[in-house]
Amino acid sequence: MQMPDPDAAILSRKARIVERLQSVLPTGAVIHERPEVRAYECDALTAYKCPPLCAVLPTSTEEVSAVLKICHEEGVPVVPRGAGTSLAGGALPTADAVLLGTARLNAVIETSYDDRYIRVQSGRTNLSVTGAVEADGFFYAPDPSSQLACAIAGNIAMNSGGAHCLKYGVTTNNLLGVTMVMMDGTVTEIGGAHLDAGGLDLLGVICGSEGQLGVVTEATLRILRKPEGARPVLMGYDSNEVAGQVVSDIIKAGVLPVAIEFMDRPCIEATEAFAKAGYPMCEALLIVEVEGSEAEIDEQLGLIKQIASKHNPVELREAKDADEAGRIWLGRKSAFGAMGQINDYMCLDGTIPVSELPYVLRRIGEMSKAYGLGVGNVFHAGDGNMHPLILYDANTPGELEKCEAFGADILKLCVEVGGCLTGEHGVGIEKRDLMGVQYTRADLAAQMAVKDVFDPAWLLNPAKVFPLEASAAHRVAAA
Amino acid sequence: MITPASEAELSEAIRAAEGPLRIVGGGTRPIGTPVEGATLSTDALTGIELYEPGALTLVVKSGTPVAAVEAALEAEGQRLPFEPIDHRPLLGTKNVPTIGGIVATNASGPRRIAVGACRDFMLGVRFVDGRGTILKNGGRVMKNVTGYDLVKLMAGSYGTLGILTEVALKVLPDVDDAATVTLSGLSDVDAVRAMSAALGSPFEVSGAAHDPEAGATYLRIEGFATSVAYRAGRISDLLAQFGTADVTHGKAATAETWAAIRDVTDFAGRDGDVWRLSVKPSDAPALVAKSGAEAVRYDWGGGLVWLLMPEGADLRAKLGTFRGHATLIRASDDTRRALPVFQPENPVVARLSEGLRAKFDPRGILNPGVMG
Prior knowledge:
The structure holds two protein chains of two kinds.
Chain A: H1 8-12, H2 14-24, E1 30-31, E2 54-56, H3 61-74, E3 78-81, E4 98-101, E5 108-112, E6 117-121, H4 126-133, E7 138-139, H5 152-158, H6 165-168, H7 171-174, E8 175-181, E9 187-191, H8 202-206, E10 215-222, E11 224-225, E12 230-237, H9 240-252, E13 259-264, H10 265-275, E14 284-291, H11 294-310, E15 315-318, H12 322-333, H13 335-342, E16 344-347, H14 357-371, E17 375-380, E18 388-392, H15 399-416, H16 435-438, H17 441-454, H18 468-478
Parallel strand pairs in A: 2-4, 3-4
Antiparallel strand pairs in A: 1-2, 5-6, 6-10, 7-11, 8-9, 8-10, 12-14, 12-15, 13-14, 13-17, 16-18, 17-18
Chain B: H1 7-16, E1 21-24, E2 38-41, E3 48-52, E4 57-61, H2 66-75, E5 78-79, H3 88-91, H4 99-104, H5 112-115, E6 122-128, E7 134-138, H6 150-154, E8 163-170, E9 172-173, E10 177-184, H7 188-199, E11 205-211, E12 216-223, H8 225-238, E13 246-249, H9 251-263, E14 273-279, H10 284-291, E15 295-299, E16 304-309, H11 315-319, E17 324-330, H12 333-338, H13 347-360
Parallel strand pairs in B: 1-2
Antiparallel strand pairs in B: 3-4, 4-8, 5-9, 6-7, 6-8, 10-12, 10-13, 11-12, 14-16, 14-17, 15-16
């Protein structure tokens, strides 16, 4: 992965920059000595590492503003970091950048059940947002699988999704407003507790901009009342084609499950060995979950089971109680861990039209043989968001490169059938150089024009999202 | 009138333009500061490009009539989930509303509070910017975080960043059954409290509106028949403290009630300006009390207020400082020139918005000034 050479002039001014940052932050909030700074050298895409110039941990919007103002004056790049769970290298530092961690921005500012929103500082973890309202029967809907650890700041940067977005949408559909600090330190409010602010939808473009337009310090999020209950049903099929057809038939029948999860044979086998969830050994397994009162769940599951039965399932198992529901979800939730037991893996998240599912799975199987690397598929089938997990051995020279080439081929396939490179993880550095597969130069230029407006000096989260050769002219103009 | 029949022709027309262009779809939503310029219509850019009911996906050219899209969806038992307002009764316009017009104005109806706005159902766009460059963003899949989300940016941009040629939308299944739970005689404050209680319940209310003149507060329940009956009952129990609820069952009756709420048909024949106020529901009654409005209608559980104001009155001046957005939807050309149609933005947001327009439309020819 090519990254720009660090700016030697910045490196030589490190002492002065650190001193200036220390002057506006509490004691201990500037981390600049090895080995402490190495804690920030990578995110969950651990194949790439680079310690930053220093890391700062501000506790308020004012402190973030002061930090950015200094960095702007000094011409120092800034890499914002949520909880560092990005699988795309979204928080990978450069050696000449100040890493801005949101870990200490974790307060709940305001909660309103009447108006159904919560306002939090952006470093708060996803699950602890729900934690703050759960006792009163409410929840925050987007549920990325890293929700125990990941921060709202990162969710906003990547427009994170989760297993339940078929019904509840992703981050952008649940975000009402933000307080954002611009690169020059200016603070602004965008949106608020009300819906659909008039004017251009800046909130819409900020969400998913991978920390390149501004640093979000506070967010107003929509909260929802928990449903009365939820129950999953598990079904196994002899072929991916049939399972794909079942997904389509369920959707067409007018049932809107909250989640439809799909696992293929390699993934089922790995999961069984690891978590022993009692899954049937078959080619494709679906977990479909619906919500409502007991009677409503019965009615919806009745319909779903009817559809499922028509396609001759090898197994059709409905959870009778919370215990059984937990077991049905157990395998799915341990899938990544299970694959990790076998080997190192790379997790992709290309998204495809649901109708292309069988074809894409078949092609991935063929490529897997050609590359000689195993791959398991576990994904959100209702919305076509795939998660191929490519297994490789990081200690074998050349295997990471082979894995990356395989991954790139899968993502190109996703685009070829009408899908996209990333459904919920973001581009980061991981998919940066593939952007040209999905977008023309003009399409990318239009996106970079937005960056030009928000961050004219191109200092925020450098060298991500856009291929370096595509962004070169913008970066030169900004310098 | 310029009516390009393809993206290429549209690009050519924009490149050839020597002055401002007034962009129209069906011309049924003349919202914004009046624009002078040569009229450019998307009327000839029509057709459903792709519709996959099993994937809940629809790709359609911008000039396609809304009715054609709705008919195609209905044939498969699906619908546009965000329930776009038909502005014709309220604005006294004729002609044929288009999909592009819905998207350009982010037109969303009562169901917005339950499922999201038009922008939330947009998966992708194709458009031509002010330099004539043909661009795309997003795609046709449900989840897509590949690059910046210009799809949202285009929604509600009133043609000022580019002219839409094609949009990809997520659609949803239509429902089996529906019912309206009605409470009577509530004050505005109590009505908002009742609607908040209902919306904060697990019973999935898909519409919450209040008509102070009729003294009626409406809650909509949709879904499978037995579920609708169950939830209507539970909602009625939940709101017992606000009086005895009357429940009207049936899809047709419910559709009629909510179409009138969606289109604010009550204000259709009445004199006066119409404003649209988006605020926190709990702030709404006090703001209404300050407004000097001749009549109001609450939607979105109180988060959206339609106000019928004396001609030329400045609602924002009456409200003073408040958190939210007031938009002048219907008024004479003179009033819409004298008062900002959209809520004035804070200086940073204004600077960013202006910067974006300058990038996408450097000559300032696309509906210049329509958003103020």
